[in-house]
Amino acid sequence: MEKVLEIKSEHNQKIVITNKNEYITKSIILATGAKNRMLGLENENEWIGRGISYCATCDGAFFRGKVVAVNGGGNTALEDALFLSSYCSKVYLIHRRDTFRGEDSILQSLKEKANVEFILNSFITELVGDEKLKAIKIHNNETNNEQEININGLFIAIGQIPENTIFSNIVELDTSGYIKAAEDCKTNVEGIFVAGDSRTKMVRQLATAASDGAIAGLAACEYIG
Questions:
Q1: 197 among known catalytic residues
Q2: Cα atoms in the 13 Å half-sphere on the side-chain side of 218
Q3: Which of 142, 157, 177, 203 would disulfide-bridge 72, Cβ 3.0–4.6 Å?
Q4: What is the pLDDT of residues 130-144, one digit of tens each?
């Protein structure tokens, strides 16, 4: 239970440097995960679970029949809005641009939903409430107008941040900071494996993370064989 500061690879050994010790090992499995990208607004962290969520499939059912908003412009945001439209009386989809990065087929399905309203060229400036979220304030980039919308829930879908910076000197990362590895969980360095949300992959869920753990564990055992 120590904070890792650096990893070095020397000959056939790996050196893990923490805030307390140094460990010499033959193999390493990196499983640092990824954290949700936040809006950076006041009370955002305090109101997680009290109106704010980063997972529509996890928490959407709690908002059945209520008014919610989704913030984002990629596939995750579009899929979240589509999912929530089956549960909620109203879904606002807020995006800072006028076009979406997500798949057009999902976007077209959303446009056919009577309870989905698009708020484009806009971003959230303030979270309103007391002990929980009750409304959001939104700024329009084109008109500079401000509006306040009463909602019961806000689903933030603006991406995740992998915590891999300290490994950038030893394993290869993609442009988003994820460790490059295929389904075999092998990095570009012999003896270093990666499991879970911190690696390049299409689906980041508990089930796929557990699968990675099994694959990486067996691969590490085989490597030190």
A1: no
A2: 7
A3: 157
A4: 999 999 999 999 999
Quick check: is 88 catalytic?
no
Residue 205 is predicted with a pLDDT of: 82
- Are the C-beta atoms of 179 and 198 separated by less than 8 Å? yes
Domains held by the chain: number? 2
Please state the φ and ψ torsions of residue 219, each to the nearest 5 degrees. -65, -40
The mean pLDDT of 92-107, rounded to a whole number, is 95
* 85: amino acid identity, one letter: S
How far is 183 from 221, CA to CA, in rounded Å? 17
* Spatial contact of 164 and 198, defined as CB atoms under 8 Å apart: yes
- Of 58, 174, 184, 221, the active-site residue reads 58
- Residues 56 and 29 occupy one common structural domain: no
For 8-47, write each residue's pLDDT tens digit: 988 889 999 999 999 999 999 999 999 999 999 999 999 9
Query: Residue 43 is encoded by which pair of tokens?
Result: 């009370």
Round to whole Å and give the CA distance between 150 and 158: 21
Q: Let me know if 221 is a catalytic residue.
A: no
Do residues 100 and 93 make contact, with C-beta atoms less than 8 angstroms apart? no
Helix (H, G, I), strand (E, B) or coil at 100: coil
